[in-house]
Fold this protein.
Amino acid sequence: MICPCSGMPPGTDYDRCCRPALDGEVWPTTAEALMRSRYTAFVRGDDDHLFRTWHPRTRPADPGADPGIEWLGLTILATTDGGVEDSTGTVHFRAYCRDHLGEQVLEEKSAFVRRAGRWMYLEALEN
């Protein structure tokens, strides 16, 4: 099965892409890899991964996935910094979903920071 994030590189299966991060075996080494693992956590309803990867300064009381949303796909539009040697980065993406109103597109430019050497989701930025 191709990873819900579309795979990194494209077409990579779930077991070799996001599963190790969601299972806590590895921590994503780039902001994009963390963002992809978070998308996959939303798809799979993995609230624990969403909690662990959300910076405590900006994390809501309940960072869990909404079971009323069916996630349909992810497109990475751009990344800025966020590499293995960086301390900050952004990922601009579109996530496609279906909810009670029909099909929707969430477009966001997300900010990521390193905390204790690990990438963390910080916040959505203005597009």
User: Anything to note?
Assistant: Strands lie at 70-81, 88-99, 102-115, 118-125. The mean pLDDT is 96.
